[in-house]
Specification:
alpha/beta; Rossmann fold; Arc Repressor Mutant, subunit A; 4 domains; seven-stranded parallel beta sheet; six-stranded parallel beta sheet; 34 helices; binds adenosine-5'-diphosphate; binds zinc ion
């Protein structure tokens, strides 16, 4: 049967080989053994039960906590020709009956069910009469009270083992630390199961935590425009109000941004989620109410405008980016106010003491991650008991190592200021004192006479905010319980005040610089490739709309990219592309080959006409004369010359009769816009003074410069 598994991988799913633990897991389950699988999001857990369910006789029953996830998985499986169905409250009685009959008749490979339904006596009796291949328990951490998505129904899933001891079970999760793992095994009676632990690393996600400037929204917009223009992403905010406000504002800036939070009508939420899944390039702005069970593979970024409460939450939320394995960003803007708010929320929490201690500990770990000056990924993995021996090279601290400075004296000044003013004031007031501000309120309290008044003028307001933030984050200062934001000293600040401990702080980095490189789902897409990429995506969109499924269910981005690189011209060649299985080849092969062919023809034609222009140009004719001779527009001739510049056949200065200052101005404008990719805003910026052809020439020259710099 093992041979059969590989066969299914290749023909049904279109993948060449298994990823590391998949093969062993699938082997185990096909042979009737139980398995517990811990794999990071995007690692490929689904195949671990889907393939055994297809290979073994009977139906694989998949327990999944989320209805949205079920529908999507079933729709995606059907695209690959797998006989899959789901049973949940969204189905009408007749449809549900039809599914049950198919189950009894052995006509299903996979059946997804919600735990509530699975556990009813009626359904268990039905199962007893059906041929069963396996039970898969997805999101198995939901069984754990220690974990963070506890679902009471999950506890009763042990009944499966008791009633159907001969049917193999496989439990899967992406988030399980040691105690959660033990709880899963105990509660689901998986003592005999083989455990497959495959690390937690998500190497394709680039972690970045930036200091928040005075305008977080602007920072977010710059980040999206520069790096994820037109791509799908999730933006997390703490409050519903903020969600609405940010979504509205992003939409005003011309992005497709939709709000999502528990206070919106169910129908609105459904529509927004649906659009996020089905359309391309939709941004969801959400509270944490959004995301569980979102299986969309091509989420290119997850942005946090507020600090999550724990590293677990951060890891789970950011983990929704890049499930397809292509490069993705986890970006967070974080500042002093976050630290104060979260500390206050904790202080005011009604939870019992032991619970509070745990929460405190979790928040400290999260703050520690933010203030880190070494590799973020190493710290994240360490938190989950996983080890990465070398710094990752794909997080902000690796890419741009932050500088630290000896802030011992500054810390002492800040702490004394808190002490001398009676531990009753908030950050802004304290900074006013340190800077020696002439202020009415300050005078009233007599604080202009204190020894700390005006002793902090070597730093500016922002730098002081950074100092206070880090002191609070490290627990040297505490936030008051009453919620006014007053700071007080803690036990831990003594050694610093006594001069026994050195304080090294992160240096505040100036607001983000211009983006250096733009990545589209990973590989850079340039020039004529951009056109092919768009054409392939348009074809995919068309097919998806015809069937009312999400574009990624037709083909993933990674599959389209491989098509671009390999340029197959026959169905047989197309079949070799990863993600193209037998059914999809039959259903969509011709359509995509046609797009590739069309593009190849256009390229040849274009190449010929560029060649004609180039010959005239080499004879000393300038663009206007060539246009006249060939009966084309000057703009078209400039575009031809741009192609020649990109190929290194023509120099920019020869092609355009522009002054160097003009060229520089255009180049700057291009770079400021999306790293030089978008022409329209630049065209408009100069009121159309420079045609698109001219802009393309400058763009092509920039492209070559960047390329040369790399080599
Ligand atoms: P998980 O459930 O672990 O988050 P998925 O099962 O959704 O991950 O798989 C993540 C992505 O990896 C999917 O796009 C899937 O098609 C792809 N994938 C899984 N296994 C393989 C494989 N052996 N070869 C290529 N792609 C794979
Ligand atoms: Zn790193």
């Amino acid at each position: 049967m093992e041979q059969q598994a590989l066969q299914v991988l290749r023909t049904v799913f279109g993948y060449e080989s298994f990823r590391p633990p998949q093969e062993q897991v699938i082997d185990t389950v096909i042979r009737g053994g139980d398995a517990l699988v811990l794999m990071p999001t995007g690692g490929g857990k689904s195949l671990c039960y889907q393939i055994p369910a297809i290979v073994r006789p009977g139906t694989g029953i998949v327990v999944s906590p989320l209805i949205a996830l079920m529908q999507d998985q079933v729709a995606a499986l059907r695209q690959s020709g797998v006989r899959a169905a789901f049973l949940n409250s969204t189905l009408g009685a007749a449809a549900a009956r039809a599914v049950e009959e198919a189950l009894l008749a052995g006509e299903l490979d996979l059946l997804y069910v919600a735990p509530e339904r699975l556990l009813t006596g009626r359904f268990l009796d039905l199962l007893a009469r059906a041929p069963l291949a396996l039970f898969a328990i997805d999101e198995a951490h939901c069984v754990s009270q220690w974990g963070h998505d506890f679902r009471p129904e999950y506890i009763q899933l042990s009944v499966l083992h008791e009633r159907f001891p001969a049917v193999p079970r496989i439990a899967l999760t992406a988030t399980a630390d040691e105690p959660t793992r033990r709880e899963i095994i105990a509660r689901l009676q998986l003592e005999q199961a083989q455990v497959f632990l495959n690390g937690f690393d998500r190497p394709n996600i680039r972690y970045r935590i930036v200091e928040r400037g005075s305008n977080a929204r602007e920072q977010l917009l710059r980040f999206i425009r520069a790096e994820h223009d037109g791509e799908a992403g999730i933006v997390y905010c703490l409050s519903r109000k903020r969600v609405e406000e940010v979504a509205h504002w992003l939409a005003e800036q011309g992005l497709t941004a939709l709000p999502y939070h528990a206070g919106l009508p169910a129908e609105t939420r459904r529509v927004h989620q649906e659009r996020f899944l089905r359309e391309e390039g939709v941004i969801i702005v959400a509270t944490i109410a959004f995301g569980m069970g979102i299986d969309k593979p091509d989420v290119r970024f997850v942005a946090h405008l507020n600090l999550p409460k724990s590293v677990e939450a951060y890891y789970q939320e950011t983990g929704r980016a890049g499930r397809d394995g292509l490069p993705a960003d986890a970006w967070m803007a974080y500042g002093l106010q976050d630290v104060i708010t979260l500390r206050q929320m904790l202080a005011q929490s009604e939870a019992d003491e032991s619970h509070k201690r745990v929460e405190h500990h979790k928040l400290d770990a999260m703050l520690g991650l933010c203030e880190l000056t070494s590799c973020r990924r190493q710290a994240l993995l360490r938190y989950f008991g996983d080890h990465l021996h070398e710094p990752c090279g794909n997080c902000d601290t690796c890419l741009e190592p932050p500088q630290t400075w000896d802030a011992t004296v500054a810390a002492q000044k800040a702490l004394s200021c808190v002490h001398r003013t009676g531990q009753r004031f908030g950050v802004n007031y304290l900074i006013d004192v340190l800077l020696g501000k002439d202020d009415e309120r300050l005078r009233r309290f007599g604080h202009h006479q204190l020894s700390v008044f005006g002793i902090g003028q070597e730093l500016n307001v922002n730098e002081w905010r950074g100092v206070f933030r880090q002191l609070i984050a490290r627990g040297l200062l505490a936030v008051d319980i009453e919620g006014h934001g007053a700071l007080r000293l803690t036990e831990r600040c003594r050694p610093v005040l006594r001069g026994e401990e050195t304080v090294l702080l992160r240096r505040e980095i100036k607001a983000a610089k211009a983006p250096r490189n733009r990545r589209k789902g990973g590989a850079a897409v340039a020039g004529s490739d951009e056109a092919l990429w768009e054409a392939l995506r348009a074809q995919r969109r068309l097919l998806a709309e015809e069937q009312g499924v999400a574009p990624y269910m037709i083909f993933h981005d990674a599959t389209l990219m491989e098509m671009m690189a390999a340029r197959p011209t026959t169905l047989a060649a197309l079949a070799h592309i990863s993600g193209v299985g037998t059914r999809k080849l039959e259903a969509y092969g011709e359509a995509f080959l046609a797009v590739l062919q069309q593009h190849a023809d256009a390229e040849t034609e274009r190449s010929d006409t560029v060649e004609d222009t180039l010959q005239l140009f080499r004879r000393g004719m300038h663009a206007e004369a060539i246009a006249h001779r060939r009966g084309l527009t000057v703009d078209t001739i400039h575009s031809h010359l741009a192609t020649a510049i990109a190929r290194g056949q023509v120099e920019l200065n020869d092609a355009l009769g522009l002054a160097q200052a003009e060229v520089n101005a255009i180049a700057d404008a291009l770079l400021a816009q999306d790293g030089g990719k978008r022409l329209k805003p630049v065209y408009e910026m100069f009121d159309g003074r420079y045609g698109y052809g001219v802009l393309r020439c400058v763009q092509a020259a920039l492209g070559r410069e960047i390329q040369d710099a790399r080599e």
